[in-house]
């Protein structure tokens, strides 16, 4: 995918041929339907980039809502900037980003001539009001082996490198704690099933082959709903850390096994937010934080600091889109 976008002679010739095919295929549909605009969801999705650029060339606005934008550490930002700097200049008409960090990266790399607006993260329009829950529910936002790892050579999500021991030991501890604490609810949230779910079920089977009534493993559930119904959140290198803090939840971040290795340390996201979270420096500490009836409030729960925290966190996640901003967005569509 990266080489496809690199500004090399071979790629340019291939894309010129592709553009001719697109023109032949879409000439009559455009005449019949009279499309007013074409939308894309990322500056690097090769499945729709040439289609969008074709429409832009015939006067149909090509607008990209660039959804990729959670780059917290300097290492991550540098990595993404390096990749995008190899891309040819895009030919879109307008790009929306979640935050200023992403906007600055695009402006300096592959989108120098395009109008870019940092309007915030529209998914936050659906954030429910924080609520307190009587029965304790703990949700673990699961992660794969390369979560948040930005390396020169991209490796597999469940290969032979990355957060392997951290994945195994943290999930094992969470499941064992659920068994020892049957009165409370435990949820493991995956982004998708398949191999990811197989890995976790494998860990569970090593512990017990019996059903665990108070433990659910889900992939389809809405993240904000899960955060809101939970009293406590466990996460690692995930936007769920910040989203949970915005919803005033107790957040536990994993900080053992590979996190102490020099080659990975700079890419541990929660190092940026330690004053707002509870850090599990070992399996034993993770179990303790899971079982504790009440966690000591972190500084983010002071009423004044909570406001500042929300503004600070939105630097990375994207600010919450206001009704006024929504009205402005509709002008472009």
What does this structure look like?
With 333 residues, the protein is of the alpha/beta class. The two termini are 29 Å apart. α6 crosses α7 (195-207), α6 (164-180) packs parallel to α11 and α9 packs antiparallel against α12. It has a 6-stranded parallel β-sheet, sandwiched between helices. A 4-stranded parallel β-sheet has the order 1-2-3-4. Helix content is 42%, strand content 12%. The chain has 13 helices and 10 strands. The model is unreliable at 300-307 (pLDDT under 50).
Write a brief structural summary.
The chain is α/β, with parallel strands linked by helices. Helix content is 42%, strand content 12%.
Strand content: 5-15%
Number of DSSP helices? 13
**How far is it from the N-terminal to the C-terminal residue, by CA?**
29 Å
Percent of residues in helices comes to: 40-55%
- The oligomeric state of the chains shown is single chain
The count of DSSP E runs of length 2 or more, i.e. the number of strands, is 10
User: Which strand order spans the largest sheet, edge to edge or round the barrel?
Assistant: 7-6-5-8-9-10
Order of helices and strands: HHEHEHEHEEHEHEHEHEHEHHH
Rg, Å, rounded: 22 Å
Characterize the largest beta sheet: strand count, sense, and whether it forms a barrel. 6 strands, parallel
Using the alpha-carbon principal axes, give the shape. Answer: elongated
- What's the rounded overall pLDDT mean? 84
Keywords:
single chain; elongated; 42% helix; 6-stranded parallel beta sheet; alpha/beta; 12% strand; 333 residues; 4-stranded parallel beta sheet
